[in-house]
Amino acid sequence: MSEESAKNPRAFFERQFQPFRIIAEKTPDAFFTGYYQPEISGSLSQSADFPTPVYAPPPDLTALPVKDRTGVLAELTAARRRSDGSLSPYPDRGAIEDGALDKVPGVRKVVYLKDKADLFLAQVQGSARVRLPDGRILRLAFAGRNGQPYTALARVLVQRGVAPPAEMTMRRLIDWLRQNGLGTGQAGDELLRLNRSYVFFSASIDKDAGKQPLGGGGVALSPLRSIAIDSHIWPYGLPFYIDARLPWRGAELESFQRLMIAQDTGSAIVGPARADIFYGLGDAAGVRAGETRHHGQFFLLLPKE
Predict the structure, then answer these.
(1) For the chain, how many structural domains are there in total?
(2) In DSSP terms, which residues pair with 83 in a beta bridge?
(3) In sequence order, what DSSP letters do the residues of 185-230 get, joined into one string?
(4) Whole domain around residue 113: which residue ranges?
(5) Strand, helix or coil at 267?
(6) Does 261 fall in a domain?
(7) What kind and span of H or E run contains 153?
(8) What is the pLDDT of residues 3-44, one digit of tens each?
């Protein structure tokens, strides 16, 4: 990009790229949600205050190529590779929480959180800043998942009549989980187990508290410019354009017409006409992200030549 183009990137993209509208099979509009990086409390040692472990990717976890997704592995994106080289389904969320990984050689627990709701929040957002008792920040970054199907728990609660779709935010879902109990057999725990998908994390001490997280593409995300896409369809780095009305600056819907870059992915982001907008760090970003569940137009930008 020339110096002139760098000063006016919009003109550069309008001159050099051709937009192609992405239309889903069931509806002409795309669906947009939001995500952010939450800050939660945790500890490097397990205790009564911090009993919930966060796991690094187990050594026997392997990505599952499309050609191997047959039989009992048909709906999975990862699997367990046994010592003889054979593949089998990886334990789901319920089995992992019941201790299925405790005897797997080489399994590491990188930090401990207050409860399963905080773990679920980190897993849905794909990253988290964990504030340790000594004030340091441990950064959790997405490092893989068990490959089991993802179930949108907010949709389950809407179907049960807990709240209408417009009111079922992530904050409300987390509150419901805690209010209904996270112990084995309690309603909150039973709801969590419906989502068989389980995310694993890498962890590192953060020396720059304001640094944005890395996306799946390996580069730092930019608030309101980075999106998570279905990486099975779109490669990282592609430019897209979103035209929608979103609550991106406040509770009211406003026009959102922006060039976005595909830099991340997520378990719930499935299909070509689907994008998750990164809002940034902390609670304020979380409010805006949690209220973003809207339709609009989604364009892929490809070079004219």
Answers:
(1) 1
(2) none
(3) TSHHHHHHHH----EEEEEEEES-TTPPPB-TTSSB--TTTEEE--
(4) 3-151+195-303
(5) coil
(6) yes
(7) helix 153-159
(8) 555 667 788 888 999 999 999 877 889 999 999 999 999 999
